[in-house]
Design brief:
The protein contains 15 helices and five strands. It is α+β, with helices and mostly antiparallel strands and about 400 residues long. It folds into two domains: about 220 residues, no CATH class; about 150 residues, Alpha-Beta Plaits. It is about 65% helix and about 10% strand. This is diguanylate cyclase. It comes from Vogesella indigofera (Pseudomonas indigofera).
């Protein structure tokens, strides 16, 4: 079964050449394994599109009110007009007042509110329309209300959603269609009713496919944008974004969060003696060797030149020391002259240092890295080292 699923995913991903690899296939099904940076950027995109969609509905919803007042009988026209005004107010609230922190949960909540408003509007308006026998132009206008679920389901296509998210958000709209049919159980044309339901399911499937394709393209773009092209580690800009997210999460939960500032020893000598091309080979080798020894949640950032920053969530300074000493003992590969490639490492823990800002945490780790260089290089220095008097040393 596992082999079948793997083969199936490979074939499906073959339809998206160059966008995803098989290891990222599960990212299209569920958001569970998305990296924090990816989740944050997707949340921002979803919130922006929620406001865009709400703006459109806030303009179009009240405009149709005048058609209802001209064509539909009273008091139905006024009831629907009040319903439209209420929905317009809710859409305006999303546009102007819903400004939450950018998290995936808040993005989901924004989508839930956005689609709950017209879904409830559809059910209530359908119930109101069942009390009237409409003919001619009134019947045509009343029939137009039945198309709202189709519009909503098609609207999912503008959001970069996983398959699971698409199913969860589409389900209430399909249930609303069935609920509306229940209120007209005795007079509903069931073949037409289930035909419309099948068409809604088809539209939901196409919208889900569009959302998944958007997500695949977004993942590919984010992966290209956040990675350093030489080493495969996170670039400094994206690393700062991940660092800020990790720092905020750790601060809220009270969990430990350690960082390690790493500088390759005597790297300038490699460039001077063997050339910058060989230096690039050493950087790539160092990053790959280091990454192989990391946990799944650890993040390696190329901070600049031969400097790297390692983010170690949920471990304190002592645990980080043990992990880094193990990595150092295993080695980082060989220099061009076949001597061991070594590094000087400074470690700092958010809780132990009492840092309120991630930049302060990086500064402490950076100073400890310089202390490691001053004390002979090829070593790890953590919290016991006083950092106030340390001065930078040569690489």
């Amino acid at each position: 079964m596992t082999i079948f699923h793997s083969t199936t995913w490979v074939k499906l991903l073959g339809l998206l050449p160059g966008e995803l690899n098989p290891n990222e296939a599960s990212w299209l099904v569920t958001p569970q394994h998305h990296m924090p940076l990816m989740s944050n950027r997707r949340a921002q995109m979803i919130l922006n599109r929620v406001r865009l969609f709400a703006s459109l509905f806030a303009v179009l919803t009240p405009l149709w009110m005048f058609v209802d007042l001209l064509v539909l009988p009273n008091p139905l026209a006024w009831q629907l007009a009040l319903l439209r005004l209420g929905a317009t107010g809710c859409f305006a609230f999303i546009v102007y007042c819903y400004r939450p922190e950018v998290t995936l949960f808040n993005a989901w909540r924004g989508m839930a509110m956005l689609f709950a408003i017209p879904t409830l509007f559809y059910v209530v308006s359908y119930v109101l329309l069942t009390h009237y026998q409409l003919t001619g132009a009134s019947a045509a206008v009343g029939t137009g209300y039945a198309f709202l679920p189709f519009i909503l389901l098609a609207g999912f296509a503008i959001f970069p959603l996983t398959l699971l998210e698409s199913v969860i958000f589409a389900a209430p709209i399909l249930v609303a269609h069935v609920t509306a049919g229940y209120f007209q159980f005795s007079v509903v044309d069931w073949p037409s009713f289930w035909g419309a339901f099948w068409l809604q399911g088809l539209i939901a499937g196409v919208a889900a496919l569009a959302g998944v394709c958007q997500l695949a393209f977004m993942i590919a773009l984010v992966q290209q944008a956040v990675r350093d092209p030489l080493t495969g580690a996170f670039s400094r800009r994206s690393g700062e974004e991940v660092l800020e997210l990790q720092f905020i999460l750790a601060s809220r939960s009270g969990s430990p969060f350690s960082v390690a500032f790493i500088d390759i020893d005597h790297f300038k000598a490699i460039n001077d003696q063997f050339g910058h091309q060989q230096g690039d080979v050493m950087l790539k080798q160092f990053a790959q060797t280091l990454t192989q020894g990391l946990r799944k949640g650890d993040v390696l950032v190329r901070w600049g030149g031969e400097e790297f920053l390692l983010l170690l969530p949920n471990i304190d300074c002592r645990q980080a020391m043990h992990a880094l000493q193990r990595l150092r003992r295993n080695g980082f590969g060989l220099r061009p002259e076949q001597t061991p490639l070594t590094a000087s490492i400074g470690v700092a823990d958010m809780l132990e240092e009492g840092c309120n800002d991630w930049r302060q945490l990086i500064e402490i780790a950076d100073q400890r890295m310089y202390a490691a260089k001053q004390q002979g290089r090829n070593r790890v220095i953590a919290g016991s080292e006083p950092v106030a008097s340390l001065q930078p040393a040569l690489a």
